[in-house]
Amino acid sequence: MRVARKSVDDKLIAPLKPHDFVQMDDTLVPRAAVLDAPLQPLAMEMLPPSFVTPESAEPFASDGMPTFQAKVKPTRARITGVGFFDRVHDQTGVSPLNGIELHPILKIEWL
Question: Are 2 and 105 in contact (CB under 8 A)?
Fold first, then answer.
């Protein structure tokens, strides 16, 4: 799981810089996505220097990491994980047809 997470961080997350975001409510959004947002420093006290998962973090720890929304370039990948059927309850990443999710993700191959 750590190798898969590092692969996502290296490919998709590392180019994202916290100073390129503005805070809206409790979420960070890209400055370019919000035309009317004032261009001011973020008000978050503990803004990380990067969104990349710290190597010392526990697998599911998110302490201190703000939630953020970002549009990344679509990137083809083959993902291997454990299939899990859940009821559809507005969660992110679930199939709306049958409620299947992958977790944990065990391997990512960039195509």
Answer: no
User: How would you classify residue 90: left for phi > 0, otherwise alpha for psi between -120 and 50, otherwise beta?
Assistant: left
**What pTM was computed for the model?**
0.68
Strand partners, 22: 29
CA distances to 18, 42, 66, 94 from 4, rounded to whole Å, are 22, 30, 21, 19
Q: Are 105 and 79 in contact (CB under 8 A)?
A: yes
* Ranges of residues in the chain whose predicted pLDDT is under 70: 35-47, 56-66
List all residues 6 or more positions away from 78 whose beta carbon is below 8 Å from its beta carbon.
Answer: 108, 109, 111
Three-state SS at 90: coil
